[in-house]
Amino acid sequence: MFVAAALLAVQAVSTPLGEEPTDPYTISNVNAGAKPSGDPRVFAAWNGKVGIDRVVDRFVDRNFADPRISDIFKNHDQVRLRRALKEQFCFILGGECDYTGRNMRNSHKDLGIQNADMNALVENLQTAMGEEKVPFWAQNKLLAKLAPMRRDVVER
Questions:
Q1: Which domains, and CATH codes, for the chain?
Q2: How far is CA 106 from the centre of its chain?
Q3: I want to staple 24 with a disulfide (CB 3.0 to 4.6 A). Which of 8, 14, 130, 136 is the partner?
Q4: What is the 3-state secondary structure (H, E, C) of the chain?
Q5: Dihedrals φ, ψ of 3, to 5°?
């Protein structure tokens, strides 16, 4: 019990390079919000981890620049956001990665995200996936895994 508490306390202080400290939380792949794809073709269609990294970087850049939703992102730790999304997408797409971020409800709490915000975000993700030339069927595999998370993200 004490060891687990000590590990949680360490997580709040020691963060990857460039990330701001955060409150402690339990690290678990369950926090990713979906189970990984069991089809290795999906991960391959995304061009593996390097393809996921490129999609996430484009996606995050678009969200920070998008006047429809940029206010939601302006005070966020971009380094942590990029890392967590890369881990989440890799885990969900079956890339044998672990997700170390918070769960969807806690990470989006009090952001006031509305349906229109979520729609803009999905549009930005689709554009980023298209730029990476992720096949439509493989894009849909990720979107289908992410869609149920909407209820944990949209607050009003």
A1: 2-153 (1.10.490.10)
A2: 13
A3: 8
A4: CHHHHHHHHHHHHCCCCCCCCCCCCCCCHHHHCCCCCCCHHHHHHCCHHHHHHHHHHHHHHHHHHCCCCHHHHCCCCHHHHHHHHHHHHHHHCCCCCCCCCCCHHHHHCCCCCCHHHHHHHHHHHHHHHHHCCCCHHHHHHHHHHHHHHHHHHCCC
A5: -60, -45
